[in-house]
C-alpha cells in the first residue's frame, strides 16, 4: 500500500514529532494517520528512535575539575 | 559574535551571568563536545575554550535570553574553526542532492521498512550510540541538537547559521541515514 500524498505526509510527521506543527497541520495529521498505514508505521518507528536516543544514550557528567579550571583561567586573564 | 545591542555589565554582573546562566549547561556542553570529538581530552579543551570565549564576549549576551543556544553556537564554531581542522573528521557533506527530498520518489527506501519498533526498543545505549557516531559530523550534529538537546528548528538555525529549511532537510536526511545504520546493525546482530 502506498500513501497517496507521501511527500506532504512525511513532512507533517516530522513536524509533529519535533513539536513544530501548526494547529492546521496537527488536524491534517490526525486525519491522514487514520487512513494511512505506511505513514503510521513510519511515524511510530521514527518516534521510537527519537525516544531511544533520548532515554538510552549515556550522558557523562563534565569532569569535576573542568569548572575549576575554567574559573581559574578567567581569573588569571582578568586580574 | 552577535548583532544584538552590547550590554555593559559590571565585573560582578559578569560573574553572576557566568555562574547563573552559563555554568548550569556545562554537562550538556561536555556531552555535545564529546559526541563531536570522541575524545575526553578534546571535549574538555573544547568546552573550556567555549566558556572562555563566552566570558570574553559576555557583553554580547543579553541576560535572561537563551544562554544554552548561545553557548552551543560558540562551541559549534570553535569546533569547526579549531578542532575539525586538525582532526581526521570527514569534510563537509554535499547537500545539493538533499534539498528536494520531500519530492523525491525514493524517499522511503525499502531499507527502512523492515526495521521494527520493538527491535529499536530492545537495543541498548551503546548500539544506538555507535549508529549515531557513525554518521558524518554535520548529520550527527542536527540529531544531537534536536533529539538529545531538544532545541527547536529556529534555535538550531541560529546555532548552525543555516536557514530553517536547511535544518529540516538535513535533519530528515540524518534520520534516514541513522535508520540505515540501525537497520544494518540489527541485521548483523540477528534481530528480527
Automatic annotation (TrEMBL), chain B:
Q: Which Pfam families match?
A: Sigma70_r2 (PF04542), Sigma70_r4_2 (PF08281)
Q: Which residues form the RNA polymerase sigma factor 70 region 4 type domain?
A: 127-176
Q: Any idea where the RNA polymerase sigma-70 region domain is?
A: 25-88
InterPro entries xref list: RNA_pol_sigma-70-like, RNA_pol_sigma-70_dom, RNA_pol_sigma70_r2, RNA_pol_sigma70_r4_t2, RNA_pol_sigma_r2, RNA_pol_sigma_r3/r4-like, WH-like_DNA-bd_sf
Source domain of life? Bacteria
The record's keywords, sorted A to Z, are: Sigma factor, Transcription, Transcription regulation
User: Which family, according to UniProt?
Assistant: Belongs to the sigma-70 factor family. ECF subfamily.
Protein name per its UniProtKB record: Sigma-70 family RNA polymerase sigma factor
Provenance organism: Splendidivirga corallicola
Amino acid at each position: 500500500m502506498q500513501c497517496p500524498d507521501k511527500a506532504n505526509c512525511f513532512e507533517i510527521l516530522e513536524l509533529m514529532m519535533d513539536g513544530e506543527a501548526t494547529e492546521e497541520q496537527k488536524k491534517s495529521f490526525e486525519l491522514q494517520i487514520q487512513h494511512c498505514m505506511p505513514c503510521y508505521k513510519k511515524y511510530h518507528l521514527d518516534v521510537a528512535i527519537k525516544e531511544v536516543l533520548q532515554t538510552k544514550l549515556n550522558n557523562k557528567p563534565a569532569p569535576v575539575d573542568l569548572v575549576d579550571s575554567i574559573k581559574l583561567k578567567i581569573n588569571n586573564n582578568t586580574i | 559574535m552577535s548583532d544584538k545591542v552590547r550590554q555593559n555589565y559590571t565585573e560582578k554582573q559578569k560573574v553572576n551571568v557566568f555562574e547563573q546562566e552559563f555554568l548550569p549547561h556545562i554537562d550538556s556542553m561536555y556531552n555535545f563536545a564529546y559526541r563531536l570529538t570522541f575524545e575526553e581530552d578534546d571535549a574538555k579543551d573544547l568546552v573550556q575554550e567555549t566558556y572562555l570565549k563566552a566570558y570574553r564576549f559576555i557583553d554580547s549576551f543579553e541576560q535572561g535570553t537563551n544562554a544554552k543556544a548561545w553557548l552551543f553556537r560558540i562551541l559549534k564554531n570553535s569546533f569547526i574553526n579549531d578542532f575539525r581542522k586538525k582532526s581526521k573528521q570527514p569534510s563537509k557533506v554535499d547537500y545539493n542532492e538533499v534539498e528536494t527530498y520531500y519530492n523525491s520518489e525514493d524517499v522511503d527506501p525499502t531499507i527502512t521498512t523492515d526495521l521494527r519498533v520493538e527491535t529499536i526498543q530492545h537495543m541498548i545505549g551503546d548500539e544506538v550510540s555507535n549508529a549515531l557516531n557513525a554518521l558524518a559530523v554535520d548529520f550527527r550534529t542536527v540529531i544531537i541538537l534536536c533529539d538529545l538537546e531538544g532545541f527547536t528548528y529556529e534555535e538550531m538555525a541560529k546555532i548552525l547559521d543555516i536557514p530553517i529549511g536547511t535544518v529540516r532537510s538535513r535533519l530528515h536526511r540524518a534520520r534516514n541515514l541513522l535508520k540505515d545504520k540501525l537497520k544494518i546493525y540489527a541485521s548483523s546482530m540477528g534481530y528480527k
